[in-house]
Design goal:
The complex is a heterotrimer of chains A (632), B (420) and C (164). Chain B is an alpha/beta fold. In chain B, 24% of the residues lie in helices and 27% in strands. The chains are: A alpha/beta (632), B alpha/beta (420), C alpha+beta (164).
Amino acid sequence: MSNCKSCSAAPTCISAHASINQMHDRTQSLGIDTCFDRYEAQQPQCGFGMQGVCCQLCSHGPCRITPKAPVAICGATADTIVARNLVRLATHGTSAYTHHLEELAKTIKATAQGKTPFSIGDVHKLKEIAGIVGLDINKPVNELAEQLADVILAELRKGADEPLALVNIFAPKTRLEAWNKLGVVPGGVLSEVRDALTKSMSNINTDPIDLLLTVVRLSIAAGYMGLVATITMQDILLGTPSLTTSEADLGVIDPDTVNIVAHGHVPLVATAVLMVAESEEMQALAKQAGAKGIKVYGSMCTGQELMQRSATSGKGFAGQLGNWLTQEFMIATGAVDLVMMDMNCSIPGMKTVADRFHTKLVAVDRILRMAGVTDHVDYQPEQVAEQAKELIRMAVDAYKNRGKDILIPTNKSGAVAGFSVETILGALGGSLDPLLDAIKKGAIKGIVAVVGCTNNRNGHDTKGLTIMKELIKQDVLVINAGCMSSAAQIEGLMLPAAAEEAGEGLKAVCKALGIPPVLNFGSCVDIGRIGVAVTVIANALGVDPSDLPVAASAPEYLEQKAVVDGVFAVAFGLLTHIGPVPPVTGGPLVTKVLTEDIESLLGGRVLVEEDPVKAAQAMVAHIDAKRAKLGI
Amino acid sequence: MRHVIIGNSIAAIKAVEAIRSVDRKAPITIIADEHGPAYSRCLLPDYLAGTRSEADLSIRSRDFYRQMGVELVLGRAVTKVVPADREVELAGGLRYGYDRLLIATGSSTFMPPIPGLGGNGVFGLRSLGDAKAIQSALPGARRAVVVGAGLVGLEAAYALYRRGLEVTVVEKMPQILPQQFDRRAAHILRQDMETEGIRFILGCGIQEVAGPSLWSRVMGKAGQGVFLEGGERLKAELVVVATGAVPNVGLVQDTGIKVNRGIVVDRFMQTSIPGIYAAGDVAETRDAVTGLYGLSPIWPNAAAQGRIAGLNMAGVQREYSSMVGMQNAVEFREVPAIAVGIVNTPGDDYEVFADYRPDKNYYRKLVMKNDVLVGMILVGDIRSAGVLSGLIKKKANVRTFKHLLRRPDFGYGHLLVKLA
Amino acid sequence: MQRIMLHLDRCNGCLTCTLACAAAHSKSGHIIGAMMEGVQSRIHIQSVKGKAVPVLCRHCEEPACVDACMAGAMQKNPVTGIVTNDGNEQSCVGCWMCIMACPYGVIVQSKDGTVAVKCDGCKDREIPACVEACHTRALEYMDVDEFAAVKRQETAYQLAKPAV
């Protein structure tokens, strides 16, 4: 918002979305502070923290690197501190992904044993993956599923000295070579997390280069287990996404129904709630309370998971409300009865808004707790059918207390969802060739994955949308995952009609295929899906990912999962644009390695550029250079 | 060089300090009709309310006059100035000669021509004497009427309220503080005072102040109160009149010194007769916002004028950079408010930015003309008052950073970055 | 006479000066105590387009706040040159005239709304707490003459720089 506020329209414009600006006016007039207001209150922010040169590990500290104190009390340099802090961020991100994957593996096991309301959603994928990891695919489906879940759990838990099977199986050979050369092929993820945390304790590992390699190692572990394995297991359980349409923005909220929002990242409880919401028993409850019915909406990545499966396991999904910065405003409509919060990205600010209305916040994951929230329905695969009903009952009770002060913006947009390697192949008639031909001919110059979080630093979704629009204008196909998906959905970029905003070449391809210029790959773990897609393209062309006219951008990155995503993209060989400057600039060596030297080692590098138009231009220039090198 | 200063409030004090900053020796005489050392008239309401003692009203230390080597002639009024002889004459005929004369006689309560205003139980509040008179009338008084909802009136009302009286403020205009604030700000401030229990009757004048009859006076009874224009009677034992002030210019009548409403001075604070200066409430200067000559009877301006007059009297030529005549800070109960310059736009060629949040008692209004800030009101949050009033005073062109002014957190930092 | 000199480009907004100022004006004398006592800082860091900008009292030659003070509380010490409303013979009444008058906006209301609060130059310290605490040397304490010389030099440098 800081930059946004400097323009003359500033006081009324804090978000790229009209609905959020309208809701912010409302929260302000109600005297409720939200992220946008608290962001202002936090200014100016500490320059030491921004540069990453503050160390609080030991009680000699806090130390910070300054002109008058160029090293910490222990002797650590700025680079050591910066790199060590980065390791800790990456460890957070990696371990959070681990939690998601573990919940899935356990659910698949319980499902295979017939203890959950779920069933195996993609038997084909189960057999395919089971075969690749060396299981006997002739076994009964449930037995095979249980075995695969055990394989994944074992992969998570094995030692750091045992290389991850999934890396060997899925990574392009050229990548594997590069990673082996650097010694960054990770072992069991939990062991990697333990090692990384231990290294980043004070005075164990103080070598900035080794610490950076640790970050790379973690990011590869997160990439293949947290991302690729998670989406694969999620597809096996809930079904691989299929092309479908849905709606997004606060305008989808129905004032006449019991409204439940599934908020977070892990779609398991949410799917169970969708499964029982239509039951007679639940519908009767809602009607007794005076509501027309029950609706389940999505917020953040849980919503994206439901949306991309809304033709299958997510049937009945009522639409996506928005991303991270929307969470307080959806409650401020006054028409949300219950928010079920799973895993991460539930901010304490939500409680303040909920307290002003009737909205009930419920934690549905044993690791999520929020001060003041006393309702916990912690997900247990074996109990989830009953837990889903309990949640709906709580929502109906909350609905009865709903007040009269309701304001629902009218804005909403349609969106196509469910893109993946499988659906693209399906759309192209089973072969990638039409897409590759379009790229070779230059109708599509290249592909940029605009992914990751949303961030208030430059206006909610403003930067991400600017980059997307700039890229498609220049015939670059954009792929979204995570909060950036919501940004594009709300502004209509995920509709085929948005092709009109693309350059001539891309427009023609989109029209011919009937697809939008911005493809909806789903949630932030679906960055794994993008990784798989790039691998498939690279294999089809017989080149390394770093040779492709492809780049990644996290224009509004916010939290730690995004840190490992970003480093993974670099390790994968991609030019990776990062929006807000990450807290590394205080370490000259670390900064140089990440933005320059790493390219010769891993093929990718970090591009730091706060101006979205310039960032888009830099990525297009990168794509042009790669095209020239490929001779296309 | 003999300096004579008539008056003993802030303009006089500042003049003394200024003279002494360049001349340790020249004789200085202060002649004033009040008895004690210089005190702050603005604090009289606190004195009246009983929260500040008489000693705490003084604005300079006990031995200020001795340190400054000032001859004090107190309790004596100057009746006339005789420029031809370079002398001033006191009641009784005693004369003081001067080389440089400063007239800093201030102003007195304006008593509108209303029957009964001169009677018992009716007071102004401009001097320590006034405040003491009100104080001695407090025993037995239960109800008070304050006529006029200007700053003095409201301060008096709040002071009397703090003394435990039931207070009603009567104002002819439809809002309180009509000179200083706009209706919206006035509304917030009035609500703030009403919360406390002070009553307001707006848009209504006074017909008569009914003093006590002879008989009731003999019985020691107070007056019957105040009759409003509609004929309604407000019972009160105490009436405070605060309907404005008039400059004390009587002593320069027939001297040839140019007088409009006040004594007209040039940019060196000198009157139309060389060697004679005027400063404070009695002087007319050019206003920074309007460009017109007028009175600016507020403390900061009197202080600055006194300082500039003193320097010029001592031979250091220094120009008075025009001040904004209308600028005031108030806080009665808990809502602080500041108004500077033009706040009620007289024409269409003004640009107004207003941000009003009634639930927070927050109001911010900026008035611009031709990209120059000419007025502002801040209620609730007064942090940026000084920087904004500085821009008003300097007549700075704000075109390039107008959008920044709208920010509630606008401050000097924004200007500093702009300058750098 | 010494003054605090500001190097705007060096400030990174860490706010350490504000903590040190609060500590110096607290009963406990240390940062944690100051935060528990709720002591206000008298140096202010504004954020202007993301750039941290310290705003501090210049202890003006002819201070508008002193002219504006109707209680006589705000005074400029003729020896040290420090302008303060604290510790003088008259006490502040919280009329906010100084806040209205100060063109630098460095005077604020106390938390309880009773008095005006501003920099007192850390009367009892050799070097003001904010200067001592500044890690980036954005704040420096120097003699007024030296201060003027540095300012002149900086201005000359600014003028000599080729126009961008």
